[in-house]
Amino acid sequence: MIKAEGLSGGYGDSRLINNVSLTVEKGEFLGILGPNGSGKTTLLHLLTGTLPAKEGSVDLAGKPLADYKPKELAQIMAVLPQKTDQAFTFTVKETVAFGRYPFQTGLFRQHTEKDEAIVQEAMKQTGVAAFAEKSIRDLSGGEQQRVYLAQALAQQPRILFLDEPTNFLDLAYQKELLDLIKRLTRDSGLAAVSVFHDMNTASLYCDELLFMKNGTAGPKQKPEYAVSDIKAVYDTDVTALVHHSSPKPMVVIQPEKDSVKQRPIPFETLLQAGSDDILLQTEIPLRTLSSAPIGAGFSWSRTLIHKRLPVQADPVEGLTACLLENGFHLPETCAMASPGRLDRFVNRTYKDGELSVFICVMTGFSIWILINGYAADQFFVKALMTAEAERVKVLGDGLTEGDILIAATQTQQSQNTEQRLNQLIQKGTAECVKEAAELFE
């Protein structure tokens, strides 16, 4: 669809883009990213021909960009800039209808039924049909941006260029706009090239990413493989997170570490127990991995609760109703249930220097393992497997239906602590489960 080779250029005597090459195929969504001043918008101007290249070439649909007449180019390409200043007062519908100009012929350029249908569809797609007769000057910045996208779509382009298209949009309209563009690339073969500031948005929607720095660009690459370049491009520390429903990574910045050392949480003094529930709440959120019905998997929790429910009760429905009734916040609550009384349990703290692990074994042999310290995600999994193995060793396979929770404060500790932590968990689980088995007889 579009091919650039050795592209260099800038404004006046300056050269802001140096030797950039790229291709964008039919149906592809390419995201261009980079720090401020890296040349993203300038590259867009070179690709669309609004800024002549000093060196290199751009081919569009197999033909040099410079060989297209303006009207012919507008039938293939549409551009949505960061912000469009409206010098005249036109209605929304009139503004969108300007997108049909490249296809109109004759001295008086009649607006045909086909043009009208395309304009109506573009307004419907972008959610601006409701204020078609309003002056565009009376709209908010986000609403205006959607009108100009409708105008671009009314051109029925084969390739669409966008410069930070979501700048003025709230979250709902950001999603709607990008969902629409992605749908058009998938269903209609539209090629899209967009400048982004938000790495995570670009990662979720784009097929390929191109990183720029100081006017140069590396090869485009799939979002799954782009994380390693981010630190070098932006000169900052970031962490890649796994998205729950997509292979494309999410990236978060790392704040400066607090130099004040956090005191260990006295889990044993925070524990509240009765015949119907065992509760522990902390001021700081704990990183948790749980097999419990509420808060299963990895999450962050301030409240841990084990609730007594009737044997016939559904654990998820029963726990959810109970938590809501008592004012617990579900996103930060990890909850498990069992039918027996909960006023008999075993809990103990195990220490090794600066490390401490609090272990509580409850009715049904459910286990809480709470760590004052840092644990990587892979260690959480290892710790859960260790606890399960020790429980089976003591009880055998027949009495191991209870849930297991691993939680950690995530405060930094000295290096090489995982082996020591695992030893504490192994020893503590075996001892506490054995004592609980004797207590529950």
Automatic annotation (TrEMBL):
GO terms for molecular function: ATP binding; ATP hydrolysis activity. Gene3D superfamilies: P-loop containing nucleotide triphosphate hydrolases. The keyword Disulfide bond does not apply. Pfam families: ABC_tran (PF00005). Keywords: ATP-binding, Membrane, Nucleotide-binding, Translocase, Transmembrane, Transmembrane helix, Transport. The chain crosses the membrane at residues 355-375. The keyword 4Fe-4S does not apply. Residues 2-239 form the ABC transporter domain. Signal peptide: none annotated. This is YvrA. It comes from Bacillus spizizenii (strain DSM 15029 / JCM 12233 / NBRC 101239 / NRRL B-23049 / TU-B-10).
